[in-house]
Prior knowledge:
Elements: E1 20-21, H1 22-29, E2 39-40, E3 42-44, E4 54-57, H2 70-75, E5 80-83, H3 85-93, E6 97-100, H4 104-115, E7 124-129, H5 134-147, E8 152-156, E9 159-163, E10 169-172, H6 181-193, E11 198-202, H7 205-209, E12 220-223, H8 231-234, H9 237-245, E13 256-259, H10 263-271, E14 276-280, E15 289-297, E16 300-307, E17 310-316, H11 321-336, H12 342-349, E18 359-364, E19 367-371, H13 376-388, E20 395-399, H14 410-420, E21 423-426, H15 436-444, E22 454-457, H16 461-471, E23 477-481, E24 488-491, E25 494-497, H17 500-511, E26 516-517
Parallel strand pairs: 3-4, 4-5, 5-6, 7-11, 7-12, 8-11, 12-13, 13-14, 14-15, 19-23, 20-21, 20-23, 21-22
Antiparallel strand pairs: 1-2, 8-9, 9-10, 15-16, 16-17, 18-19, 18-26, 24-25
Helix pairs in contact: 4-6, 5-11, 5-12, 11-12, 13-14, 14-15, 16-17
Amino acid sequence: xxxxxxxxxxxxxxxxxxxxxxxxxxxxxxxxxxxxxxxxxxxxxxxxxxxxxxxxxxxxxxxxxxxxxxxxxxxxxxxxxxxxxxxxxxxxxxxxxxxxxxxxxxxxxxxxxxxxxxxxxxxxxxxxxxxxxxxxxxxxxxxxxxxxxxxxxxxxxxxxxxxxxxxxxxxxxxxxxxxxxxxxxxxxxxxxxxxxxxxxxxxxxxxxxxxxxxxxxxxxxxxxxxxxxxxxxxxxxxxxxxxxxxxxxxxxxxxxxxxxxxxxxxxxxxxxxxxxxxxxxxxxxxxxxxxxxxxxxxxxxxxxxxxxxxxxxxxxxxxxxxxxxxxxxxxxxxxxxxxxxxxxxxxxxxxxxxxxxxxxxxxxxxxxxxxxxxxxxxxxxxxxxxxxxxxxxxxxxxxxxxxxxxxxxxxxxxxxxxxxxxxxxxxxxxxxxxxxxxxxxxxxxxxxxxxxxxxxxxxxxxxxxxxxxxxxxxxxxxxxxxxxxxxxxxxxxxxxxxxxxxxxxxxxxxxxxxxxxxxxxxxxx
Length: 525
């Protein structure tokens, strides 16, 4: 699928609503039946996005209650509201019929599924969870299926895109890794309406805790790994794991595919409440499928997999052991929904790079790479991978940490960078509402005294990338980490246009005018 599908974002709801009666929905939710029956055409959480005939969901929040916006929802054409006892009075005062439930967030997912006609049942569904690898796996699956002329789509960090049975590509703007339940079921209904056969979806830990993915029972769910991230939300790694573990229950999936490279995966394989298939890239770990004999081939890796049916050879389009794991996961997930054979293996090996994931933007005389690695483990994997690429001289990394997110990982990011790179340039990621200088100090605090790495602190991401290009010499590699394919940088609540890939490409062109760009690379790189 083209990375520029759909120049105009499309709505996250079907063109022809399935609809449901208020009485039917009340019965499903166990709520008191409304005094007058209504037909509900759609579901939304956002009072600004209400369309005539919608069920509007007014949920309690940390700072306000959704019911505070009841008048706006009514003015836009909402015919009924789903809320809790605390919101009922304000919604009735706005003239809205009310469905009252004790837990409106959980009920929202049920309502969205019912009103949209439970669209996930009309699709083959693949859910992928884990700290790292979700986007790479879901994108590889979708691109493989499209190469085989199978209508398919994906939902995740990079937004939502799909190709229908008529061959048309669609792009739908989504903000969260896993959209809120009304948006999610609207997207699935849209895909089912366009005869999509398979959808692969990133399932975040936030989504599982906050009921966003409820009412979707995936045909197969995948666990990639668990490393430190999102502790600002979960508190502890144990709670983070417990959130991911919910996906491997009958309420959420029928079968599991679990990477057992780390102890969290091995524990999940033991404790999952559904049948699981395991895979590994390690020689010392037992698994149903094991990757071995990894061989660099071009910019990717060819490897052998030993499984119950014998041995087979696969190719990962990107370098590194973690992309070997991602490729094997994608193959197993495709097989779980009935897609296997030589054509699938060939298409998977040619699926290409994922935007912002170990994406090469320059090759010579300096190699430039942009990657989304924004956790200590992901950064470690990226740096180790690039260090192992034949012909690499020095490794320079431009990195930082996001604001208003898990602060405990910041010093770990700095320490990892200084341990594995020759030159570390600490700069700003997405500071959001925090002081950028304070974030940089926390990252720098993790760098050990006596490090052999050359360390720089640079105020301004563009300036940091320019410095890396200036410092780099022939056969050096620059990694710009943290933001991947994002096209904006959030500073003080304002999103400024910023694309690491364009900035790095331009900086290298200015610093090394005779260099070869990404367009000059050998075909297949």
